Amino acid sequence: MSEQPAHAPYDALLLLSFGGPEGPDDVVPFLENVTRGRGIPRERLKEVGQHYFLFGGVSPINAQNRELLHALRKDFAEHGVELPVYWGNRNWAPYLTDTLREMAAHGRRRILVFATSAYASYSGCRQYRENLADALATLDAEGLPLPRVDKLRHYFNHPGFVQPMIDATLAALDGLPAAVRAGAHLAFTTHSIPTSAADTSGPVEAHGEGGAYVAQHLDVARQIAGAVREATRVDRPWQLVYQSRSGAPHIPWLEPDICEHLEELHGAGAPAVVMVPIGFVSDHMEVKYDLDTEAAAKAEELGLPVTRAATVGADPRFAAGIRDLVLERAAVERGRAVERCALGALGPSHDLCPVGCCPARAPRPAAAGADSPYPRQQDQGAL
């Protein structure tokens, strides 16, 4: 019997992302998809969509996903990994359900999923698993063969994610005027979420103040701050801050907000700030608008020099890191012992999301976890 390929038993990789509008006419329908079930009036969505209209109604995220898709296919081909890579979105074309239907038609029966969210949280992990369950239910109702779907572990502390962020932070420091560079503070930014969602993020044993969401971001921030200190021989003050809040004012969300943080630093005499968006995989709208537009405007108003580190995007090291995660998980599924790559203090994350991990306010079926309605054993015939 011939030796199995390194990616076996998987026969496809699915790049799963948020999606975004690609023209002015797409903005409100896209926001209706994002907010479905919340009863938000269309006129209010038009107001919310103004920051998209500043960019011609086009979110950068789809173009960035295409670049990552190309980088993955190139990396796989160069390393002999003959695994086709597909792409599906939660909120805009190409839609996840359509992509899974296409994959099923192509005979894909063991699918590995890479989500463009590196951390544990409801919106960053379980909601994608719910989307997968919804898509599988649709395929089931249509009488199509159901593939077995697994999700790659969280990769916030994988070198393929962390090392490009370190280099981007150093490059952003170099972009500051020389006179203020040595005293620059680091502001590590991520998406704010309700404190209740943060506190219940990750496995049950991680629940508590901030949960896994905050702990994982702090772990990454410490690694980057330490590497920058070593490279520049300057011990810089740093803090984890938040952005992109979208909830009702009476509901507690993670703070401080980046703009409030800039005001505080300016008041305390900080000479400059580097914003490091560790919570984001690419320079999509939350980065281009909330940091490059709003936060930059606040800094200009204050007279505070700021720069912003690039996200990992389609960095070849990121693509190589994804390949490493794919081959790691494939080896685990074949019963092989593996050395999991992870930096920092927290170690590698779980392969299978346990029961109670990142719970929703209203329980819904979620695939690729211990509580999946599509049990692993029912798909053994696809191996």
Named CATH topology of the largest domain: Rossmann fold
What series of H and E elements makes up the topology? EHHHHEHEHEHHEHHEHEHHEH
Give the low-pLDDT segments.
376-383
Largest sheet: 4 strands, parallel
Q: What would CATH call the architecture of the largest domain?
A: 3-Layer(aba) Sandwich
When the domains are counted, the total is: 2
Instruction: List the total number of helices.
Output: 14
Outline: globular
How many β strands by DSSP?
8
Instruction: Describe the strand arrangement of the main beta sheet, using strand numbers.
Output: 2-1-3-4
Q: Given this structure, which CATH class of the largest domain is correct?
A: Alpha Beta
Mean pLDDT: 94
Termini separation comes to 16 Å
The Cα radius of gyration reads: 21 Å
User: Given the helix and strand composition, which structural class is it?
Assistant: alpha/beta
| Share of helix, binned | 40-55%
Summarize the structure.
The protein is an alpha/beta fold and 383 residues long. It has helices at residues 27-34, 42-48, 50-53, 61-78, 96-105, 122-141, 159-174, 178-181, 195-199, 211-232, 258-267, 285-288, 290-302, 316-333, and strands at 12-17, 85-89, 110-115, 148-151, 185-191, 238-243, 273-276, 306-308.
Give a description of the structure:
This protein folds into two domains: 12-155 and 315-382, Rossmann fold (3-Layer(aba) Sandwich); 159-308, Rossmann fold (3-Layer(aba) Sandwich). Helices cover 42% and strands 11% of the residues. Mean pLDDT is 94; it is low at 376-383. It is globular and about 65 Å long. The relative contact order is 0.17. It has 383 residues and is of the alpha/beta class.
